[in-house]
Design a protein that fits this description.
The chain contains 26 helices and two strands. By secondary structure, the protein is mostly helical. Helix 6 crosses helix 14. The radius of gyration is 28 Å and the shape is globular.
Length: 594
């Protein structure tokens, strides 16, 4: 019996030579078609590019992002299991609030992903100067990219909602489990599909109607506003959920124009059928029409935008004068004071010019800036119910917390942009001229960051006092907030760039620092205590001038101590003998990729 199944029979070929292994395959392996290869290539470009990952970490980064997006749906489902099994069940409007969270989360997650890969939906230099020179038809290139875009968005749409769609209906354990699962899956899918189609249609219409140059000018502002709006929706969810019954029962026009409510209506209409409230039926009808309209608009504008981008890449961009006339007096002062050394002046202007001409670096600034503004809005804006109406009010504590929030996320975003994965094509010129980057290069980087952090933070102080309640303003309050803003910008710049030893945009982040969990711990472990400490410190500073002098002395002392540590780090770095393989090949490769 055992010999028949050949478990213990001797092998036919004791040694599997290359010839024997080749003979084991009776037929030719199935070859992929040209279209399949292109789809795989375009899909891989979403994950392997200068914005999302550096060399060798594509799979790890993709898995980290997938886990981070999928986990909230599962965690919320587990958290809601006990409330749904209390005696008497979960109240009706709390169930509505749970459904609203899932459609809103799908809306925010897919919208943020679409914004982050905004520039990869259309052709780039690689497509035009490499792929278009091969024997590939234009229609094949076009449809392959369309398929890759749909697959990419579909993968993240499925990943963001799969665990929630499986576990939340099971946790809720409503009478009709199958109907609940179907309603949940359709609602969250429609929510994500709408926002993805909206941003595709927006980008396509900008390229088609305004042209490449104007589109690239206004795109960062639109991306920043969009990220701010999406993250604000997520952060104010606890506030909105408390007033959900009042909002939906009021019949106000603002309810009809808030997209997440449309898909909440679809959820309730599919789950409860004709017995649902009339407002949900109206919202559901709006949601179906709006989704179909956005998909149609995206399908209409995408071919024209694709053609416009191809023509722009072939013809090249028009020469632009990136010198800002408004900043000329400030630049002249800097040249005569802080930037008298040529190395510092070169690095300072290199940072400015690179951020202006390279969209991929602005993506980091957009995401961090949008996140910071969303935190400010969520902390400042409050809802107040009175006389049957809901009104917006400003929180004094939220206005005070805006200063550390803006300073922190501005400097953190600049650091992420400077150290983000990037082409290292400019690295060789600095190495040839000056060797390793030293004290002057790092000093110019920190001054550039400090200058713009001060401009944004002190500008926010002015804006805060323009919208603050009457009792919030005053010379003492204004002076303390200016002092706190300057101190935070100075110390946060020193802290964030303490171990930065390279010229911005010219080096890849080490693989050991790409662990997403450790990155989040570093940020969220430092950020909340910083905000709370700043709020308490402002009250203490208002008690007298002596307190202000004490804190000023501490800030100056901490600043010089951090500078001393940074100088020692740079000095040790300059004294190291590089033995890395990439450094040994530097004269031949010039820091370029293969």
């Amino acid at each position: 019996m055992l010999s028949r199944v050949r478990l213990f029979s001797p092998p036919k070929h004791p040694v599997l030579s290359l010839a024997v292994q080749a003979a084991l395959f009776d037929g030719d392996p199935q070859e992929r078609s040209q279209f399949q290869v292109l789809v795989r290539h375009f899909l891989d470009r979403f994950f392997t590019n200068e914005t999302t990952s550096s060399d060798g970490e594509t799979k790890a980064r993709a898995l980290q992002i997938a886990y981070a997006i999928a986990l909230p749906g599962l965690c919320v489902a587990i958290y809601l299991f006990p409330p749904y099994h209390y005696p008497g069940g979960r109240p009706f409007w709390l169930q509505i609030s749970d459904h609203y969270f899932y459609v809103m989360y799908s809306f925010v997650a897919i919208g943020a992903i679409t914004i982050f890969v905004w520039d990869f939906f259309f052709p780039d230099l690689l497509d035009v100067f490499v792929l278009s020179t091969l024997s590939i038809q234009r229609q094949t290139l076009f449809w392959a990219r369309v398929s890759a875009v749909v697959l990419f968005l579909g993968i993240f749409l499925l990943g963001a909602n799969a665990l929630g769609s499986l576990f939340f209906p099971a946790s809720a354990d409503l009478p009709s489990l199958a109907r609940h699962f179907f309603a949940h899956l359709v609602a969250v899918t429609m929510s994500g599909a709408f926002i993805a189609a909206f941003f595709l249609a927006l980008q396509g219409s900008l390229l088609t109607l305004l042209g490449e140059r104007i589109s690239r000018t206004i795109s960062p502002f639109l991306q920043g506003l969009s990220v701010t709006g999406l993250l604000t929706m997520l952060l104010i969810f606890p506030i909105v959920s408390r007033f959900l019954e009042a909002l939906l029962s009021s019949g106000g026009r603002e309810v009809q124009y808030f997209p997440p409510f449309w898909f909440l209506g679809i959820y309730e209409r599919l789950l409860r059928g004709s017995s649902t409230l009339p407002v949900f039926a109206t919202l559901a009808r709006t949601g179906w029409i709006a989704t179909a309209f956005m998909i149609a608009m995206a399908s209409l504008f995408y071919p024209f935008a694709y053609r416009s981008r191809m023509r722009h890449v072939v013809e090249g961009a028009d020469p632009r004068n990136t010198q800002n006339r408004i900043l000329i007096p400030l630049t002249s002062v800097l040249h005569k004071t802080l930037l008298r050394i040529p190395q510092r002046r070169a690095i300072f202007h290199f940072i400015s010019q690179t951020l202006l001409r390279t969209p991929r670096y602005r993506v980091y600034l957009t995401m961090y800036g949008g996140g910071g503004m969303a935190l400010v809005i969520a902390g400042v804006v409050m809802l107040k119910l009175g006389d049957g109406h809901i009104s917006l009010v400003f929180s004094p504590d939220g206005l005070r917390a805006a200063i550390p929030i803006i300073a922190f996320w501005t400097i953190a975003g600049l650091r992420a942009a400077f150290l983000g994965p990037a082409d290292r094509k400019v690295n060789w010129i600095f190495r040839v001229i000056n060797g390793k980057p030293g004290w002057d290069e790092s000093t110019a980087t920190r001054w550039w960051v400090l200058l713009w952090a001060l401009i944004l933070t002190l500008g926010s102080v002015t804006l805060i006092h323009a919208i603050a309640p009457p009792g919030f303003n005053g010379w003492s309050n204004t002076g303390v907030q200016v002092f706190v803003g300057i101190s935070l910008c100075l110390l946060l710049t020193d802290a964030f760039f303490l171990n930065v030893k390279m010229v911005p945009f010219t080096g890849a982040r080490p693989a050991s620092t790409t662990n997403l969990a450790f990155v989040l711990i570093q940020y969220f472990g430092l950020f909340p205590p910083l905000v709370l400490l700043t709020l308490g410190l402002e009250d203490w500073l208002l008690q007298g001038l002596g307190h202000l002098l004490i804190v000023a002395a501490l800030v100056v002392g901490a600043h010089f101590e951090l500078l001393r540590r940074h100088r020692r780090i740079v000095t040790d770095f300059l004294g190291l003998i590089e033995v890395d393989e990439e450094e040994e090949e530097f004269p031949q490769r010039l820091g370029l990729r293969y």
